[in-house]
Amino acid sequence: MARRPRRDPKAEALRRQGSLNRHPEAVQDELFRDHGFFDPRDLVQLKYEMLRRVEGEGRSVSGAARAFGFSRPSFYKAQRGFTREGLPGLLPKRRGPRGGHKLTETVLAFVDAERAADPALNPAALVGRIEERFGVRVHPRSLERALARRAKKAR
């Protein structure tokens, strides 16, 4: 029977936090190749060391970014994040919209009025009416979540 590969708890933790470097092989810095303490899979550690090399040791931005497997724009983004927030500023941010941007208060007020007129309306029927009235396509589950958030806030 074949043995399952052993799971790496640090890699799993980094993945859960969103800070696992997907390309550790791109890191060329000597400390990350030769020293066990420095982990090329840890994005936060990589970004911090890259910034330290430029700020503390006077290396060029281009050279440091290349040695750590980043682009120059990535260096400047990390620098801005670190300046603004310290170490937490080096953590990757979630991409995309941060909530129901289509389901505005106006749309939800319309939904409330429709449900008051006909309590039997389900989210699938309501999304059709939302699209018809506002020209916005919404998934029924998104509407359910938005209504649940409002109900929770009201309590």
Helix content: 55-70%
What is the count of DSSP helices, taking H or I runs of 4+ residues? 8
Largest sheet: none
Number of domains: 2
Tell me, briefly, the overall form: elongated
**Gyration radius from CA atoms, angstroms:** 24 Å
Terminal Cα separation, in Å?
Answer: 55 Å
Mean pLDDT: 91
**Total beta-strand segments:** 0
Structural class: mainly alpha
Strand content: under 5%
- What order do the helices and strands follow? HHHHHHHH
- Unreliable stretches (pLDDT < 50, length at least 5) are none
Your description of this structure?
- This protein has 155 residues and is mainly α.
- The protein has two domains: 10-90, no CATH class; 105-150.
- Helix content is 57%, strand content 0%.
- The protein contains eight helices and no strands.
- Helix 3 (43-55) packs antiparallel against helix 4, helix 3 packs across helix 5 (72-85) and helix 7 (123-134) crosses helix 8 (140-154).
Give the gist of this structure:
This protein has 155 residues and is mostly helical.
